[in-house]
Description:
single chain, alpha+beta
Amino acid sequence: xxxxxxxxxxxxxxxxxxxxxxxxxxxxxxxxxxxxxxxxxxxxxxxxxxxxxxxxxxxxxxxxxxxxxxxxxxxxxxxxxxxxxxxxxxxxxxxxxxxxxxxxxxxxxxxxxxxxxxxxxxxxxxxxxxxxxxxxxxxxxxxxxxxxxxxxxxxx
Length: 156
């Protein structure tokens, strides 16, 4: 079972990183930095370089960003390896690690993360940010569940 959980988390991680890096490469190759192209009402494709964490928080934070990401990933890995028997724990773990690695690759290569989806009144974001955000929500759901039942004993 342990190996299966690790493989599933690894597969999710690889898919997220691949999709994230592919979409960012398409944006870097097709949209100039600062350019904005409307694709649907209220949704634009942009090319933004983000030096912060998700959605631009701590922009220019340097070591603060590195420390926050490292602490969050260490906590996630600790939880994952101490709860391998928890149903679906592999899914948010793969999503969170994949999203984090996707953005780390950008930082190492370019010194900033490529963001490209823009909604009204919301900072630009990317596939890695989506994966991290959804991964947090799925992780909270996994933590709140015990053996297919809600913590309070109700099924659901």
